[in-house]
UniProtKB/TrEMBL annotation:
Subcellular location(s) of the protein: Peroxisome
Classification via SUPFAM superfamilies: 6-phosphogluconate dehydrogenase C-terminal domain-like (SSF48179), ClpP/crotonase (SSF52096), NAD(P)-binding Rossmann-fold domains (SSF51735)
Pfam families linked to this entry: 3HCDH, 3HCDH_N, ECH_1
Name this polypeptide is given: 3-hydroxyacyl-CoA dehydrogenase
Start and end residues of each 3-hydroxyacyl-CoA dehydrogenase C-terminal domain: 476-568, 604-685
Chief site of localization: other
């Protein structure tokens, strides 16, 4: 039973009991209506308390029911709230921990609300691409005023209950025993004569509602570009202000039904569940005991090591930072300090907090200082020989049970594990640059990595606010293995007739934060060159365009050399199309006898994105990723894939795998078609009319 019903001396207590967050699924909704009716029919009951068991009052509508028949089956949330609101006996919502979305809307339907301090109060629907669909856009402005409500609805951000103590939302915010306070409050109001107050009957007072709404609309339009929900939130609030509660409610419902079916909402919900699903590893039970991580060490204080260290100290975990030379150590520390100083300048960190954080770092040149570390993350040069030396040394000094992690981006984690006598304790922790900023962490699972090591790293990732995704061992892991195919297509298209600016523009219009050529100029074209040189030896049969090598031979490594695929002016990161490069591209096409032709934006987007999808499908087939949503999380959090499209695999589902397959077969039959080897699973799923996500 998703709802408990108890009576306490004239008061009925209806307790939502649907773990983990008392989502308002069908059985919970039915339970509430049943409880209210039971209380009405019991003459001994004078008042009703509505509350939640466990760690929430309610986290809102059950998102897993969206777009299923259960979502619209009676009693709907609207019916539940109407039942609560029209109860002749007063209903008191007793709110603790979390009242979000439909949960807050339910509470707004009660006659009275009391809350414990520290409860998170929010209408976060907009983050799922929808709007509050059970009266939130109508009742919240009546409860707390137009401006405060619009802010909460459009941002979706939680507000702590104590901050709303004087807002008109709560009748009381009580310290101590909420259940006892709720019962006492219910007895008091139960003794009073009805009718009891309804939020819907309150007025929205504002000196210039129309002006404020217009201001809000302008501000939101500028930032919500590809997301329809925020503007709809404003429309719905406006409808209530202009036309009254009932018309506003009807309009809100209409908007909700339309928004829940949009691809943007599907993408946002996919990302919500994808993030949570990523932390679950199929063969590692959720209750696997984890190792205690109190002290971390980082080896190498370069670009990555410094950023990695910052993640831990930001979470209050002390870090020992090891380098080979004093100068390198000092340089690393200075960079970390500089980063914090920039944060202080932006007002996001107090100056004293800077010193507290710096004090959590113990710099050292000696491996002896790593003896107490529970986790050691290696971020030294990307050479197997150097990793060999470091891991052998770590094996000597690290305490038993310490986790030994490598931040390698291209090397074989199993080989690195084999440098030690404890391969079960070795794992890849592949951070992305800048490591203190980027959300993504690929956790690379070696052949022998122990399950509790994985469980520990996944838990730690949450603590340092990363989105961790497990990848098996393969060249490039999930993200870089896929991006290689994307870059390959980008380069072939230059040979075939496109120019860098055209490719970048097309994919940026699709929604990528940055196209492949601007990205490459930023990262440094020499990095890809070094990787390709290795590839030519390892995979002599693999067909690459050599056009990027030609650019590097011209010394055009990107922004850092003042020119790459584009020209750059000193002190200016704007990418200006480069006539020299365009000439080089034309000449290169001639040399390779490529027939230059006009390549349309649609082809550019398809070739780039389907290259990701095709490789992603192979990654799934090989078990390198355990689910399609993991791949999407990698691309959403590490590669600038547009959130409103939900990641490459969800996008492929949206396009339809039948269409993806046809396009890949078409490109495979054209020049440079040998780069397309259709993934078996795409054809299989397409034949069954299915997608990667079911
Ligand atoms: N429906 C279904 N499942 C939900 C859920 C919801 N509304 N909210 C959370 N869950 C699930 C999560 O998927 C997760 O499941 P798992 O354990 O199987 O992975 C579990 O509950 C715990 O979630 P978290 O890991 O996020 O737990 P936290 O304690 O960190 O956070 C929370 C709890 C603050 C409630 C957070 O889960 C959250 O922000 N949830 C989303 C809240 C939301 O968006 N509500 C609005 C829903 S839409 C709505 O109400 C429409 C209405 O207007 C008609
Ligand atoms: P870097 O060259 O900036 O830093 C490496 C640091 O390691 C230098 O400060 C060097 O002095 C130090 N070092 C070298 N040998 C050492 C040893 N034996 N003991 C202690 N310190 C030693 O390199 P970067 O970019 O930080 O890369 C480090 C690792 O992170 C590499 O494995 C790389 O592949 C990986 N990586 C790099 C990313 C990037 O964007 N730069 C992204 C993800 C992973």
């Amino acid at each position: 039973m998703a709802v408990d019903y108890t009576t306490h001396d004239g008061v009925a207590v209806i307790t939502l009991n649907n773990p983990p967050v008392n989502g308002l699924g069908l059985s919970t909704r039915a339970g509430i209506v049943e409880g209210i009716e039971r209380a009405q029919n019991d003459p001994a009951i004078k008042a009703i308390v509505l509350t939640g068991a466990g760690k929430a009052f309610s986290g809102g509508a059950d998102i897993t029911e969206f777009n299923t028949p259960k979502a619209t089956q009676e009693p709907t949330l609207a019916t539940v709230i109407k039942t609560v609101e029209s109860s002749a006996k007063p209903v008191v919502a007793a709110i603790h921990s979390v009242a979000m979305g439909g949960g807050l809307e339910l509470a707004l339907g009660a006659h009275y609300r009391i809350a414990a301090p520290g409860a998170q109060i929010a209408l976060p629907e907009v983050k799922l691409g929808i709007l509050p669909g059970a009266g939130g856009t109508q009742r919240l402005p009546r409860a707390i005023g137009l401006e405060a409500a619009l802010n909460m609805i459009v941002s979706g951000a939680p507000v702590p209950s104590e901050k709303l103590a004087d807002s008109g939302l709560f009748d009381a915010v009580v310290d101590g025993d909420l259940a006892a306070a709720a019962l006492a409050f219910a007895r008091k109001v139960g003794a009073q004569q009805g009718p009891h107050p309804k939020v819907r009957d309150r007025k929205i007072e504002h000196p210039n509602a129309a002006g404020f709404i217009q201001f809000a609309r302008n501000s939101v339009a500028a930032i919500a570009k590809n997301f329809p929900a925020p503007l709809k939130c404003i429309d719905a609030v406006e409808a209530g202000v202009q036309n009254g509660f009932d018309k506003g409610l009807a309009f809100e419902r209409e908007c909700f039904i339309a928004l829940v079916q949009t691809p943007e909402s599907r993408a946002l919900r996919h990302a919500f569940f994808g993030e949570r699903a990523a932390s679950k590893i199929p063969d590692v039970p959720g209750d696997t005991p984890v190792r205690d991580i109190k002290q971390v060490a980082v080896i190498g204080a370069g670009t990555m090591g410094g950023g990695i260290a910052m993640n831990f100290i930001n979470a209050g975990i002390p870090v020992t930072l090891l380098e080979t030379k004093q100068e390198a150590l000092e340089r690393g520390l200075a960079t970390i300090r500089k980063n914090y100083e920039a944060t202080v300048r932006k007002g996001k960190l107090k100056p004293e907090a800077l010193e507290e954080r710096m004090a959590l770092i113990t710099p050292t040149l000696s491996y002896d200082d790593l003896k107490n570390a529970d986790l050691i993350v290696e971020a030294v040069f990307e050479e197997l020989g150097v990793k060999d030396q470091v891991f052998r040394r770590l094996d000597e000094v690290a305490k038993p049970g310490a986790i030994l992690a490598s931040n390698t981006s291209t090397l074989d984690v199993d080989k690195i594990a084999a440098f030690t006598k404890r391969p079960q304790d070795v794992v890849g922790m592949h951070f992305f640059s800048p490591a203190n900023v980027m959300k993504l962490l690929e956790v690379v699972r070696g052949k022998e990595t122990a399950k509790d090591v994985l469980a520990t790293v996944m838990k730690l990732a949450k603590k340092i606010k990363k989105t961790a995704v497990v990848s098996g061992v393969c060249d490039g892991f999930i993200g870089n293995r896929m991006i290689e195919q994307y870059i390959r297509q980008a380069l072939f298209m230059l040979e075939e007739g496109a120019l860098p600016a055209q490719v970048d523009k097309a994919i940026e219009k699709f929604g990528f934060a940055m196209g492949p050529f601007r990205m490459s100029d930023l990262a440094g074209n020499d990095i890809g060159w070094a990787i390709r040189k290795r590839r030519y030896q390892e995979h002599p049969d693999m067909h690459y365009s050599k056009i990027a090598d030609r650019l590097c031979e011209m010394g055009r490594f990107g922004q850092k050399t003042g020119g790459g695929w584009y020209d750059y002016k000193a002190g200016d990161r704007t990418a200006y199309p480069s006539p020299v490069v365009d000439d080089m591209i034309g000449a290169f096409s001639k040399e390779t006898n490529a027939q230059r032709r006009k390549i349309g934006d649609e082809e550019i987007v398809e070739r780039l994105v389907f290259a990701l999808v095709n490789e992603g499908a192979k990654i799934l087939e090989e078990g390198i990723a355990s689910k399609a949503s993991d791949i999407d999380m990698v691309y959403l959090t590490g590669y600038g894939f547009p959130l409103y499209r939900g990641g490459p695999m969800l996008y492929a589902d949206t396009v339809g795998l039948y269409n993806v397959e046809r396009a890949i077969r078409r490109y495979a039959s054209r020049p440079n078609g040998d780069a397309w080897r259709l993934a078996r699973s795409i054809a299989e799923l397409a034949a069954q009319g299915r997608g990667f996500n079911g």
